[in-house]
Amino acid sequence: MTASTLRMMSYDDYNPEEMAKVVTRSVRTLNKHKDEFDSIVVRGVSGLMIGAPVALKMGKPLLVVRKPNEKRHTSVPIANHVRSGDRYIVLDDFVSSGATARSIIDAMKKDRPKARLVATYMYQSNQYLTSNDPNFLM
Hints:
By secondary structure, this protein is α/β, with parallel strands linked by helices.
């Protein structure tokens, strides 16, 4: 799947019914691999909107990697990193250049040197998904 086949979800695209579908679909897919990772890592508000309910339903810790230079609420680069385990997945809604994923991985390496990325899961709204790919990259 190429970046040109996907449209990034904007905040206006999030509605309760669609979010519930995305969360349910994500949990169903990720549960097949639940023993392979300890925690879920997201970035930003859009990541929290899907990542938080997915993590709660799966009983997995959720880590939030702040954007570089974001110090509005705290200077801590990764929120909730205390009980996160060593194997994590990145949960994201869109991958274009890979810069966001790379910055998340770099932040995790700096803050948690023993932690390792085991997968990236890209969730999409049905209205923008143009392929039957499972979106789970191991």
